[in-house]
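Model it.
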Amino acid sequence: MYDDILIPTDGGEGFGAVLDRAVEIAPDTATVHVLYVVDDRAFLTLDDEMKSEVLEDLQAEGTDAVGTVADEVEAAGLDAVTAIRRGTPADEIVAYAEQEDIDVVTMGTQGDDYTQNILGSTAEKVVADASVPVLTVDLS
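Modeled.
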């Protein structure tokens, strides 16, 4: 059984479908971890003053995102834990899963075409690198 489930969120639409899948596989005693990663690649080239402002905005976005998902998790009768990290999303998701002894990662994917996104999607990287099962939910 999956006692610890990780739902990474980027604050976008579609987390409801991911949450539905997580709830389907979760026993009543499960803890759902909700993770938002501030993608620091987005502001590496900015000057220090602008970096601070952008980081603050992204942290606030992350706080809202994890709070929204956590509220839904708790409304479904499960315990929620929230976290915000900074780094490359796929790397941070995999690291969090390992550090927190996550049993399964449940995340959305946009059905990205690798030929259109040469770096690959976050979901593709997590599936390839995670040491635990990854349940992807097509949001496209």
